[in-house]
Design goal:
- It is a single chain.
- With 361 residues, the chain is mainly alpha-helical.
- It contains 12 helices and 2 strands, in the order ααααααααααααββ.
- Helix 2 packs across helix 5 and helix 6 (129-156) packs antiparallel against helix 12.
- The longest helix is centred in the N-terminal third of the chain and has 34 residues, at 29-62.
- InterPro entries: Mg_trans_NIPA.
- One of its GO terms (cellular component) is membrane.
- Keywords: Membrane, Receptor, Transmembrane, Transmembrane helix.
Length: 361
C-alpha cells in the first residue's frame, strides 16, 4: 500500500514545487542581471546628464556679456551639452525597463555627486591646501556617504521583475493598494495646493512636496511606457493597448506641472536647498509609489528591506552635505528709480551689497 501511494504522492507534490518557484522571481539569477543592467544605465545616464548641464552652463557663462541673448546657439559647447543631455535622459529612461522603480529612483544621487566633483575640479579660485580642505570637507564626506548609500541600494535593492504588458499594468492600476495610495495622494495634493494658492504658504517643503507627489506618478508612468516599449521590441506588440496612451498622457501632464512648481521654487529659494530637499521628498514618494503599484518589495526578506532603507538614509545624508556646502547666492536688489514715486526728489539709488539701503537710514 505504501509503495503504491509513493509515486502518486510524488506526482501530486511536483506541481506545488513548480508553483512555488514561479511566485518567487527574486530568486532567479537572471533578475539580478537585469537589476545590474538597469542600475548601470541609470548611473551612466545621470553622469552624462550632469556633464551635459555643466557644459551648457559653461557656455552660458562664457557668453554672459554678449548682446545677443541667443549667442550660445552658435557654440559647439552648448550643442554638445544638448546631445549629452538627450543621451543621458535616454539612458535613465531605458533603465526603468530593466530594474524595479524603487531601485532606479534613488540613483539620481549620482548626478549630485558628479556635479560636486566637476565643480571642485573646474573651480577657478586658488586656495591654499588647508583652506581648500576646510572649505570642501563637507563635499568630500557627502560624496563618500552618497557612494556608500548607492552601493547599498544596488546590492540590497528590490529584485522583483515582471513583463510590462498592457494586461499586467491594467491589473496594477485597479489594484486596491494603488487605489488607496492614489486616494491619499490626491487628498494630500489638494490640501497642499489649497494652502499654497489660497493661504500663500510658500514654504519650500510645501512646493517640493507638490513636485514629489507629481513626480511619483511620473516615474510610475515612465516605467510602464519604457517596459511596454521594450516588450514590443522583443516581439510582443504592446502599443495597441489603450493603457499605453493613458500612461503617456499622464507622464507628459505630470512632468509639465512639475516643471512649473520647480520654476516657482527656484524663484523663491536657493538651488542647493531645492536639490537636497527635493531629492529626499521625491525619492521617498517614488519608492512608496513603486511599492504600491509594482509591488517592488514583494517576497523580499526583512534584512534586504532594512539594508535598502539604510542605503537610502545614507544617500540622503550624503546629498544633504554636498548641497549644504554650496555657496548661497546673495539676492541683489535691482536698480530703484525714486522719480517714479510721487512727492519724492528725482534721486537714483543703487543697492550696493552688503551695505544698508539708503532708505533705511
Amino acid at each position: 500500500m505504501e509503495g503504491g501511494n509513493g509515486p502518486d504522492l510524488q506526482l501530486q507534490q511536483l506541481p506545488l514545487t513548480t508553483a512555488a518557484v514561479s511566485v518567487l522571481p527574486h530568486e532567479d539569477p537572471y533578475s539580478y542581471k537585469e537589476n545590474l543592467i538597469g542600475a548601470l544605465l541609470a548611473i551612466f545616464g545621470h553622469l552624462v546628464i550632469s556633464i551635459a548641464l555643466n557644459l551648457q552652463k559653461y557656455s552660458h557663462i562664457r557668453l554672459a556679456g554678449s548682446r545677443d541673448p541667443r549667442a550660445y546657439f552658435r557654440t559647439k559647447t552648448w550643442w554638445c551639452g544638448l546631445f549629452f543631455l538627450l543621451l543621458g535622459e535616454l539612458g535613465v529612461f531605458s533603465s526603468y525597463a530593466f530594474a524595479p522603480l524603487s531601485l532606479i529612483v534613488p540613483l539620481s544621487a549620482v548626478s549630485v555627486i558628479a556635479s560636486a566633483i566637476i565643480g571642485i575640479i573646474f573651480i577657478k579660485e586658488k586656495w591654499k591646501p588647508k583652506d581648500f580642505l576646510r572649505r570642501y570637507v563637507l563635499s568630500f564626506v557627502g560624496c563618500g556617504l552618497a557612494v556608500v548609500g548607492t552601493y547599498l541600494l544596488i546590492t540590497f535593492g528590490p529584485n522583483s521583475h515582471e513583463m510590462m504588458t498592457g494586461d499586467n499594468i491594467t491589473k496594477h492600476l485597479v489594484s486596491w493598494p494603488f487605489l488607496l495610495y492614489m486616494l491619499v495622494e490626491i487628498i494630500l495634493f489638494c490640501l497642499l495646493l489649497y494652502f499654497y494658492k489660497r493661504k500663500n504658504a510658500n514654504y519650500i517643503v510645501v512646493i517640493l512636496l507638490l513636485v514629489a507627489l507629481l513626480g511619483s506618478m511620473t516615474v510610475v508612468t515612465v516605467k510602464a511606457i519604457a517596459g511596454m516599449i521594450v516588450v514590443s521590441i522583443q516581439g510582443s506588440l504592446q502599443l495597441g493597448y489603450p493603457i499605453f496612451y493613458i500612461m503617456l498622457v499622464c507622464m507628459v501632464a505630470t512632468a509639465v506641472f512639475q516643471a512649473r512648481f520647480l520654476t516657482q521654487a527656484s524663484q523663491l529659494y536657493d538651488s542647493s536647498q531645492i536639490a537636497s530637499i527635493g531629492y529626499i521628498l521625491s525619492t521617498a514618494t517614488a519608492i512608496t509609489a513603486g511599492a504600491t503599484f509594482y509591488l517592488d518589495f514583494t517576497g523580499e526578506d526583512v534584512l534586504h528591506i532594512c539594508m535598502f532603507a539604510l542605503g537610502c538614509l545614507i544617500a540622503f545624508l550624503g546629498v544633504f552635505l554636498i548641497t549644504r556646502n554650496k555657496k548661497k547666492s546673495i539676492p541683489f536688489e535691482p536698480y530703484i528709480s525714486m522719480d517714479a514715486m510721487p512727492g519724492k526728489r528725482k534721486v537714483q539709488y543703487f543697492a550696493i551689497l552688503p551695505l544698508k539701503h539708503p532708505l533705511s537710514e
